[in-house]
Amino acid sequence: MNAANVRQERPSHPQWVESIYERLAEDDEGRVCKAISDNACRESPGNFVRMLIANTLSNLADRLASAKTTLPWLLMQLGAPAWMLSLLVPIRESGSMLPQLWIGASIRQRAVRKWIWVAGGISQGLCLLVMGWVAMALEGWGAGALIVALLVVFSVSRGACSVAFKDVQGKTIPKTRRGRLSGWISMISGLAALGVGVLVGGLQSDSSQEVFVMLLAAAALLWLLAAIVFSRMIEEPGATEGGADGWRAALDKLSLLRTDLPFRRFVFARALALGTGLAAPFYVVLARDSLGDAISLLGLFIAVEGLASLVSSPVWGKWADRSSKQVFATACAMASILSLMVTIWSWVPASDLAHQAFYLLAFFGLGIAHAGVRLGRKTYLVDMAQGNKRTDYVAVSNTVIGALLLVVGLVAGLVASVSTQAALILLALAGLSGAWMSLRWKDVSG
């Protein structure tokens, strides 16, 4: 019986798990087992649900302790120097990507890789707990410096989780069901974030410090619970060839950019699409310039972002299983067009009510587009390769993108110091180029 056939083995998980899997994965007419082993196929419903729970918890934790919203507002509340605010997003994003080339080389030495994710999750939870203590005990330069340092550790741990997750997902979840899984993760965590955002939006500004402490503590608890759930994943030992060659072997993997044309096209298009993530703070800056910086506005942005994932991610995920490159191209173009529209609107004289409605709708649209970009490129990358090659692809692409993110973030920051609108235009034009380039990717779905 080959891997594409329907399996009839007796399941090793409760019937309710099977029912959830059949409903969410739309796999009720016989088990789909594409690109995984027989044993992994038998365990796929249980692993699907465990991965859904663990990554929903971690996704929600990321929203509660976001480097784009929560942490900048916390540093301002603690009186940290303004220049520290500009470090948060680059450290959060590039810090989780740059070390992945070497992390990937280390992970290849381990036949069972779920424990890398578990260790990374525990580390992130502990970092957030210490940040919560900082918010209560320190202020000024010291508080800001310690939070930035903790964010470095947090981001490196996140990088380890990223490499391990894609590899474990590729070994345990069948092809054509991975996009659905990612879609449901984003939707459920988006629903929870929507509720939190509405709650925060109803609070008064004089309670903001306590709110930040509670958000960080809740995010820490979610990460620790996620680690416990992920430790229950049933993962077969995988290949370990090439895992003991150290830094030299890791650097050698960069040759993939020269020798592997489909992979090179993927990395270039992903680099051009960085604006879908970097644009969000500029939306917030323009909105705050027009409407002020009350914590209720932060709550509205958290709620809108959660609503965007809630309504869009299952659609993007299902579509990504059919054509992940189409999802990436469509979402990337959508984000770029929105940024151009926001730029134009920022020059239009309007009432506070009109500004609030527009910026919240634009942020909602950007959230939908960014969810599509993330789901499209994640599903494409996982479907693109098998075994250790998948780990290499993830590690190389994330390391390169992490380095480029620092450069693009620096350039966008310098441009934004002159004109926020000019920075948005720059990111939008790059995104449109990335959308066009992704249409040349080879088809790997299905």
UniProtKB/TrEMBL annotation:
Record bears the keyword Membrane: yes
Protein name according to UniProt: MFS transporter
Organism taxonomic ancestry: Bacteria, Pseudomonadati, Pseudomonadota, Betaproteobacteria, Burkholderiales
Source species: Orrella marina
PANTHER family recorded: INTEGRAL MEMBRANE TRANSPORT PROTEIN-RELATED (PTHR23526), MAJOR FACILITATOR SUPERFAMILY (MFS) PROFILE DOMAIN-CONTAINING PROTEIN (PTHR23526:SF2)
Record SUPFAM superfamilies: MFS general substrate transporter
Pfam families recorded: MFS_1
UniProt entry keywords in alphabetical sequence: Membrane, Transmembrane, Transmembrane helix
Gene Ontology terms for molecular function: transmembrane transporter activity
Residue stretches spanning the membrane: 115-135, 141-161, 181-205, 211-230, 267-288, 294-315, 327-347, 353-373, 393-416, 422-439
Gene3D superfamilies documented for this protein: MFS general substrate transporter like domains (1.20.1250.20)
